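Page 47, continued from p. 46.
Same chain as before, 127 aa.
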Amino acid sequence: MNLPELRRYFLVGIFLLFFAGVCFNASAQCAGSVSLKKAAVESDTSQGVIEIEVKTSGDFICTLSIEKGSGPVKVQEKRGRGNSIVSFVALESNQSYKVDVEFLSEDQSALCRVLQKSGISLQSDLR
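Result:
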């Protein structure tokens, strides 16, 4: 075997390992899930509200942050257990928010331990 042949086998091997890793991760399902239910400015108070639906069988920590150029700035943190709707109220309407949900269950994979929703902007609540 010459050097170009060895290089080709090496690259094929790396590609196969990468492909197997992607397929394995794609097939892994997280036990918990996070979805944005509401991001609005209440018409009667002019204050923002964000509601996050968390589906899990265990404990979790839900952290709301403002996204800034220097990094996230924590606004509020709430703890919960089981399937829940987490509400953050009295928010500034001109900010971009991020929510991180950390699942505290030991059976969560590393990829599923923290799920997030980012780039949340508050919309006017048309009633």
